[in-house]
Amino acid sequence: MNLAWQWLGWGFVFACGCLCGHADEARRAVVEAWPQWPAGSAPGLCAGVGVDSRNRVFVFHRCGRLWTNPFPKEPIPQATVSVIDGASGQVLNSWGAGMFVMPHGLTIDSEDHVWLTDVGLHQVFKFSAEGRLLMTLGERGVPGADHAHFNLPTDVAVLHDGSFYVSDGYRNTRVMKFGADGRFEFEWGAKGVGPGEFDLPHGIALDSKGRVYVCDRTNSRVQVFDGRGAYLDAWKGPHIGRPYGISISADDHVFVIDGGEPSMRKSERGKAVELDAQGRVLDTFGSPGSGPGQFQLGHDIAAGPDGAVYVAEGTGARVQKFVRGVRRRTSR
C-alpha cells in the first residue's frame, strides 16, 4: 500500500466522524420535506439530477416505469423532467411527457442546457431548460457500436466550449468525445479491469482543468483521464464502493454516490463521499435506509452553486437535498 492509499484509508475513518473534528464540522445534513411534490405526482425512480446557474434542480425520473428485459417500446406518457426551486423545494415546471422510454442520465452544462440519456432509446439529447429539443444523437431504438450509435448510454459531461463526452455504457463500455456540433471526435475504452478499461461506465464529470472522471461501476472505482483520454489515476476502496453517479463542484471537490449492487443487502448500500481533486476524502454523508438522509440505491448526485448537494435515488424513488450544518425543515 503506497502512502496515498494509506492516507485515503485514514481519511475514510476520519470522514465517518470518529477521529477528526474537521469531518464533523463538514458533515452535511438532509433538508427534510424537500422537495414539495404536488399531490399525485410521485416521480418514481429518480435516475438523474443536476443544478443550473439559477439554482434550479432538474430531476430525470421514470414515473413508475420499471427496468424490464426487453424494455417497453412506448414512451412514458407523463412528464419525466421536473424543475425544482433549490431554495424552497417547490416544483416550478415539468416536461418530457411522451418522449422517453427509460430515463437515465441528466447533466446541466455551463449555458444551462439540459443533457439527457435514454438507455431504452439508445440516444443522447440536448434541451433548453424549458424543454425545447436542440440536438439528438443516436438512432432511435437502435443499438450499435459505431460512431453514430450508442448501446445504453449512461451520462454526459460538457466542456465550456460546448464539446462533450458520453459514457456508453451498459454494453459498449467506452467513452466517446463529440464536438459542440455533435460530430464524433474520438473514443477510448474496452471491457476489462486494466487502466482505461471499463465494466459499466455509469457516470461521467469534468473538473475545471478538463480532466475526465468516470464511474467505472462494476469495477468499483473512479478512473481519471486527461481530456484526450489518457489514463491518469484510479480511486478505489471502501470510501468509493460501487460508484453510480459523480459531480464536481466549482472548487473541484468531487462528489460520488455509492449505489452498491442489486445483489447486496440493502444495509450495505448507501453513502455519499466528498473528495478533493487528488482523491482524498473530505467528508461522507448518508447511510442505508429509507429515512431522511438515508439512501435506497443512490443513482446520481449533483453539487449546486450554493454548496448544497442533491442525491437521486433509484429504489427510494426520491431526490434529497443536503447542506452543511444542523438538520432543518423547509416550510410548507
Q: DSSP strand (E) fraction?
A: 35-45%
What structural category do the secondary elements indicate? mainly beta
CATH homologous superfamily title: TolB, C-terminal domain
Apparent shape: globular
Topology, please?
Blueprint: H1 3-15, H2 21-26, E1 28-32, E2 46-51, E3 56-61, E4 81-85, E5 91-95, E6 103-108, E7 114-118, E8 123-127, E9 133-137, E10 153-158, E11 164-168, E12 174-178, E13 184-188, E14 201-206, E15 212-216, E16 221-225, E17 231-235, E18 243-248, E19 254-258, E20 271-275, E21 281-285, E22 287-288, E23 294-295, E24 298-303, E25 309-313, E26 319-324, E27 328-329
Parallel strand pairs: 1-27, 22-23
Antiparallel strand pairs: 1-26, 2-3, 3-4, 4-5, 6-7, 7-8, 8-9, 10-11, 11-12, 12-13, 14-15, 15-16, 16-17, 18-19, 19-20, 20-21, 24-25, 25-26
Any descriptors?
mainly beta, globular, single chain, Neuraminidase, about 40% strand, about 5% helix
Quick recap:
The protein has 332 residues and is mainly beta. The protein is built from 2 helices and 27 strands. The chain has helices at residues 3-15, 21-26; strands at 28-32, 46-51, 56-61, 81-85, 91-95, 103-108, 114-118, 123-127, 133-137, 153-158, 164-168, 174-178, 184-188, 201-206, 212-216, 221-225, 231-235, 243-248, 254-258, 271-275, 281-285, 287-288, 294-295, 298-303, 309-313, 319-324, 328-329.
